[in-house]
Amino acid sequence: MFILIFFNYLCRQYSNKMKHLIYIILIPVAWCVAASCSSEQPEEIKAEVTDTIPSLVMQIQKTSRLYTTEYHIHKIVTHDDVVRLKGNFLSKDFDITLPLGERKIAIPMNATLKAYIDFSDFSEKNIERHGENITILLPDPKITLTSSKINQKEIREYVGLARSHFSDKELTNYEQQGRKAILNNIPNMGLMQAAQENAARVLVPMITQMGYQEEHITIAFRKNFNIQQLINSTIEKQ
Question: What global pTM score does this model have?
Answer without folding.
Answer: 0.62
